[in-house]
Write a structure and sequence with these properties.
By secondary structure, the protein is mainly alpha-helical. It has one domain. It is built from five helices and no strands. The chain has helices spanning 5-23, 41-64, 87-110, 121-144, 152-174. The radius of gyration is 19 Å and the shape is flat.
Length: 175
Protein backbone atom coordinates (compact mmCIF):
# COMPACT_ATOMS: atom_id res chain seq x y z
CA UNK A 1 0.00 0.00 0.00
CA UNK A 2 1.43 3.33 -1.04
CA UNK A 3 1.58 6.07 1.59
CA UNK A 4 -0.31 9.23 0.79
CA UNK A 5 1.69 12.45 0.72
CA UNK A 6 -0.44 13.85 3.56
CA UNK A 7 0.67 11.07 5.92
CA UNK A 8 4.30 11.63 4.96
CA UNK A 9 3.90 15.35 5.80
CA UNK A 10 2.31 14.45 9.16
CA UNK A 11 5.13 12.01 9.94
CA UNK A 12 7.79 14.60 9.01
CA UNK A 13 6.05 17.23 11.18
CA UNK A 14 6.00 14.88 14.19
CA UNK A 15 9.68 13.99 13.67
CA UNK A 16 10.61 17.67 13.35
CA UNK A 17 8.67 18.46 16.53
CA UNK A 18 10.46 15.67 18.41
CA UNK A 19 13.87 16.83 17.18
CA UNK A 20 13.13 20.44 18.12
CA UNK A 21 11.93 19.33 21.55
CA UNK A 22 14.87 17.06 22.30
CA UNK A 23 17.78 18.80 20.58
CA UNK A 24 17.04 22.53 20.86
CA UNK A 25 15.99 25.02 23.53
CA UNK A 26 12.84 26.04 21.63
CA UNK A 27 10.56 24.33 24.16
CA UNK A 28 12.78 24.85 27.19
CA UNK A 29 12.68 27.44 29.95
CA UNK A 30 15.13 30.30 29.68
CA UNK A 31 18.15 29.84 31.87
CA UNK A 32 21.80 29.04 31.98
CA UNK A 33 23.36 28.59 28.57
CA UNK A 34 25.71 25.74 29.50
CA UNK A 35 23.18 23.56 31.33
CA UNK A 36 20.36 21.42 29.98
CA UNK A 37 17.21 23.30 30.90
CA UNK A 38 13.89 21.66 31.76
CA UNK A 39 11.02 21.79 29.29
CA UNK A 40 8.64 24.71 29.62
CA UNK A 41 5.11 23.38 30.10
CA UNK A 42 3.52 26.43 28.47
CA UNK A 43 5.88 26.43 25.46
CA UNK A 44 5.36 22.71 25.01
CA UNK A 45 1.58 23.19 25.14
CA UNK A 46 1.80 25.83 22.42
CA UNK A 47 3.97 23.52 20.33
CA UNK A 48 1.64 20.56 20.79
CA UNK A 49 -1.46 22.52 19.78
CA UNK A 50 0.36 23.95 16.76
CA UNK A 51 1.46 20.47 15.72
CA UNK A 52 -1.98 18.92 16.25
CA UNK A 53 -3.79 21.64 14.29
CA UNK A 54 -1.21 21.52 11.48
CA UNK A 55 -1.44 17.72 11.25
CA UNK A 56 -5.25 17.87 11.45
CA UNK A 57 -5.38 19.77 8.19
CA UNK A 58 -3.32 17.17 6.36
CA UNK A 59 -5.33 14.38 7.93
CA UNK A 60 -8.53 16.02 6.67
CA UNK A 61 -7.04 16.36 3.21
CA UNK A 62 -6.22 12.65 3.14
CA UNK A 63 -9.54 11.57 4.66
CA UNK A 64 -11.66 13.60 2.26
CA UNK A 65 -9.29 13.34 -0.73
CA UNK A 66 -10.48 16.59 -2.30
CA UNK A 67 -9.37 16.84 -5.92
CA UNK A 68 -10.13 19.65 -8.32
CA UNK A 69 -10.63 19.34 -12.09
CA UNK A 70 -6.92 19.51 -12.95
CA UNK A 71 -6.16 16.78 -10.42
CA UNK A 72 -4.35 19.08 -7.97
CA UNK A 73 -5.21 19.09 -4.27
CA UNK A 74 -7.52 21.78 -3.00
CA UNK A 75 -9.11 22.42 0.38
CA UNK A 76 -12.60 21.76 -0.91
CA UNK A 77 -14.58 18.63 -0.19
CA UNK A 78 -16.12 16.62 -3.00
CA UNK A 79 -19.50 18.31 -2.50
CA UNK A 80 -17.88 21.74 -2.98
CA UNK A 81 -17.77 22.82 0.67
CA UNK A 82 -14.51 23.96 2.20
CA UNK A 83 -12.61 22.36 5.05
CA UNK A 84 -13.29 25.19 7.48
CA UNK A 85 -10.98 26.24 10.26
CA UNK A 86 -13.31 26.68 13.23
CA UNK A 87 -13.33 29.29 15.96
CA UNK A 88 -12.13 26.60 18.36
CA UNK A 89 -8.88 26.24 16.43
CA UNK A 90 -8.23 29.97 16.80
CA UNK A 91 -9.15 29.88 20.47
CA UNK A 92 -6.89 26.90 21.18
CA UNK A 93 -3.92 28.55 19.48
CA UNK A 94 -4.72 31.90 21.11
CA UNK A 95 -4.98 30.43 24.61
CA UNK A 96 -1.79 28.43 24.26
CA UNK A 97 0.11 31.36 22.71
CA UNK A 98 -1.09 33.72 25.45
CA UNK A 99 -0.14 31.27 28.17
CA UNK A 100 3.31 30.69 26.67
CA UNK A 101 3.87 34.45 26.26
CA UNK A 102 2.91 35.39 29.81
CA UNK A 103 4.81 32.41 31.27
CA UNK A 104 7.85 33.49 29.24
CA UNK A 105 7.65 36.98 30.72
CA UNK A 106 7.47 35.55 34.25
CA UNK A 107 10.40 33.22 33.51
CA UNK A 108 12.44 36.15 32.14
CA UNK A 109 11.77 38.18 35.29
CA UNK A 110 12.50 35.25 37.60
CA UNK A 111 15.72 34.27 35.87
CA UNK A 112 17.83 31.48 37.37
CA UNK A 113 17.30 32.45 40.99
CA UNK A 114 13.93 30.70 41.28
CA UNK A 115 13.89 26.98 41.98
CA UNK A 116 10.72 25.09 41.10
CA UNK A 117 9.54 21.68 42.16
CA UNK A 118 8.26 19.43 39.40
CA UNK A 119 5.47 18.18 41.66
CA UNK A 120 3.60 21.47 42.04
CA UNK A 121 -0.13 20.91 41.71
CA UNK A 122 -0.74 23.77 39.25
CA UNK A 123 1.53 22.07 36.70
CA UNK A 124 -0.24 18.72 37.01
CA UNK A 125 -3.64 20.38 36.80
CA UNK A 126 -2.61 22.40 33.72
CA UNK A 127 -1.23 19.27 32.05
CA UNK A 128 -4.31 17.16 32.89
CA UNK A 129 -6.77 19.71 31.48
CA UNK A 130 -4.63 20.14 28.35
CA UNK A 131 -4.56 16.38 27.73
CA UNK A 132 -8.30 16.16 28.42
CA UNK A 133 -9.11 18.86 25.84
CA UNK A 134 -6.57 17.40 23.39
CA UNK A 135 -8.21 13.96 23.54
CA UNK A 136 -11.66 15.47 22.99
CA UNK A 137 -10.31 17.48 20.04
CA UNK A 138 -8.69 14.42 18.41
CA UNK A 139 -11.74 12.21 18.99
CA UNK A 140 -14.00 14.89 17.50
CA UNK A 141 -11.67 15.36 14.54
CA UNK A 142 -11.83 11.66 13.65
CA UNK A 143 -15.56 11.40 14.33
CA UNK A 144 -16.61 14.55 12.41
CA UNK A 145 -13.94 14.28 9.71
CA UNK A 146 -13.59 18.05 10.00
CA UNK A 147 -12.09 20.58 12.40
CA UNK A 148 -14.19 20.27 15.55
CA UNK A 149 -16.06 23.16 17.09
CA UNK A 150 -15.41 22.59 20.78
CA UNK A 151 -17.94 23.79 23.33
CA UNK A 152 -17.47 27.20 24.88
CA UNK A 153 -17.50 25.53 28.31
CA UNK A 154 -14.55 23.35 27.35
CA UNK A 155 -12.58 26.35 26.06
CA UNK A 156 -13.42 28.27 29.23
CA UNK A 157 -12.14 25.30 31.26
CA UNK A 158 -8.85 25.44 29.35
CA UNK A 159 -8.70 29.21 29.86
CA UNK A 160 -9.32 28.91 33.59
CA UNK A 161 -6.65 26.22 33.79
CA UNK A 162 -4.18 28.51 32.02
CA UNK A 163 -5.06 31.42 34.32
CA UNK A 164 -4.64 29.23 37.39
CA UNK A 165 -1.26 28.03 36.11
CA UNK A 166 -0.10 31.60 35.45
CA UNK A 167 -1.57 32.89 38.72
CA UNK A 168 0.35 30.33 40.77
CA UNK A 169 3.48 31.11 38.76
CA UNK A 170 3.15 34.79 39.69
CA UNK A 171 2.39 33.89 43.34
CA UNK A 172 5.45 31.64 43.55
CA UNK A 173 7.53 34.41 42.05
CA UNK A 174 6.45 36.85 44.76
CA UNK A 175 7.23 34.43 47.62
Amino acid sequence: MMLQIEYIIILLAVILFAVLMLKTNLFRRPGLKNKRRPLSLSRTQFGVWTLVIFCSYFYLLSAKKPIDIEGAYSDYEEDGTRIEITKSVGMLLGLSFGTASVAGIVDAIIGNSFSRSTSQIHRWQFLAIMIFVLLIYIRSLFYLQNYPELSVKLLILLGISSCYYLGIKFKLFKT
